[in-house]
Design brief:
By secondary structure, the protein is an alpha/beta fold. 39% of the residues lie in helices and 14% in strands. The termini are far apart.
Length: 397
């Protein structure tokens, strides 16, 4: 981005250390007691990009908030973003608006599976996947990731066994992976695609965290891993995580296979979650057309926070280690040398220090003994959280 006179805008232009009081009556994350520090739910404590705020204000100042439509400008903005940012060429016609990625997943489960069929997930993984499956009368079939003490990896023999089950019709891929922060390689994704195609399983790829990778690390879209992956998959994404816009209810799916896309699109319409609110389109267009510089600065800042957590835990807290992470603003803390009862540890941390983290076990049994820490906040609060974590761990019995 250039300033007047051709001078390049510095990333320091964006001040992520600026205090922001989020204790609003409707702020989910900060609906906590005085003195408590919430570092759990996956949204950030930063104002969104200035360009996005300007677009929202301009839309608000218009004053009329009738029904909204998905525009060609929105389709072009999303397609251009994926081409320039992730090297994936999308046709605007392949895009379908949704009010949320979870809404899209639930609709896809209804559209692409029958009652009592299996949907494969890879725990420890985002806990709401279970809700989208079970609440629709389908069965969650777990293929847990394997942890070697450093990295989380796919257990290929187990995955093939689960996909080969004749009752399995859908697999949900979390790409990048929440909560472990794993970026799946093109080879891993292509191998998933080959297995799913072999056994007639469709893939739903949740790529909501795809913008929040470690600086220097790219994201591999599932649809870009191979032509086969593109043919058998539906991908869901949103500007919500990267630009802190969850409350805008603005997301989308894309699928190259016309029949697959049509089935999900019809279900999204049936479920009444395919119409944008008055701010959903303009905020997304602004993010994708003008927010790249802000996002790059944000990624640098988040990485500094994650590096600080890794250093602090390594040097100051015996028995706890941070798993290596290449994506998300979430730190995945291995506390198994202290306790496998992560719920008791989490409750103790909150009761004695006011620090609120997420239990690892809520992401499946494979997450038992881990804690998830959200560092999408200013460095001052990260340091406060680490101090509380140290005190709480030391007093845990």
């Amino acid at each position: 981005m250039l300033l007047q006179g051709g001078m390049k805008m510095s990333k320091a232009t964006y001040n992520f250390d600026e205090p922001l009081d989020r204790r609003l009556p409707d702020a989910c994350k900060w609906a906590v007691a005085d003195g408590e520090l919430p570092m759990w739910v996956a949204d950030m404590d930063f104002r969104t990009a200035p360009e996005v705020r300007d677009a929202i204000v301009a839309r608000a100042e218009h004053g009329a908030f009738g029904y909204s439509e998905v525009t060609d400008e929105w389709r072009s903005a999303v397609a251009d973003w994926w081409q320039s940012r992730h090297g994936l060429e999308l046709q605007p016609s392949e895009l379908v608006f949704s009010t949320g990625v979870v809404a899209a997943l639930s609709s896809a489960v209804r559209a692409l599976t029958n009652v009592h069929e299996n949907v494969v997930v890879q725990p420890p993984v985002y806990n709401i996947f279970w809700n989208s499956v079970v609440n629709n009368g389908r069965h969650v079939l777990e293929s847990p990731l394997a942890f070697d003490g450093e990295r989380w990896q796919i257990d290929w023999a187990d995955l093939e066994e689960k996909l080969a089950d004749p009752q399995t019709s859908l697999m949900v891929v979390c790409n990048p992976h929440n909560p472990t922060g794993t970026i799946w390689s093109a080879d891993d994704l292509a191998r998933i695609g080959e297995l799913c195609d072999r056994y007639g399983v469709t893939v739903f790829s949740d790529e909501i965290h795809c913008e929040l990778t470690r600086p220097g690390c790219g994201h591999v879209p599932f649809a870009a891993a191979s032509d086969l992956c593109r043919k058998i998959s539906v991908t869901a994404a949103s500007p919500s995580k990267a630009f802190n816009l969850a409350g805008m209810q603005s997301a989308y799916i894309f699928a190259s296979d016309a029949r697959l896309r049509h089935r999900v699109e019809r279900q999204l319409n049936t479920d009444e979650c395919a119409e944008p609110n008055a701010f959903a389109i303009s905020s997304a267009v602004a993010a994708y057309t003008s927010g790249a510089a802000w996002l790059d600065a944000l990624r640098d800042y988040i990485q500094q926070n994650k590096d600080e957590v890794a250093r602090f835990v390594s040097e100051r807290i015996d028995g706890v280690r941070m798993c290596p992470s290449d994506a998300t603003y979430l730190c995945w803390l291995d506390c198994r040398n202290i306790t496998m009862d992560d719920r008791a540890l989490c409750d103790h941390l909150r009761a004695t220090t006011g620090l609120i983290l997420s239990t690892g076990s809520q992401y499946g049994d494979a997450g038992r003994g881990f804690l998830r820490m959200n560092v999408g906040t200013r460095a001052e609060l990260v340091r406060d959280g680490l101090s509380r974590l140290e005190r709480g761990i030391r007093s845990f019995a």
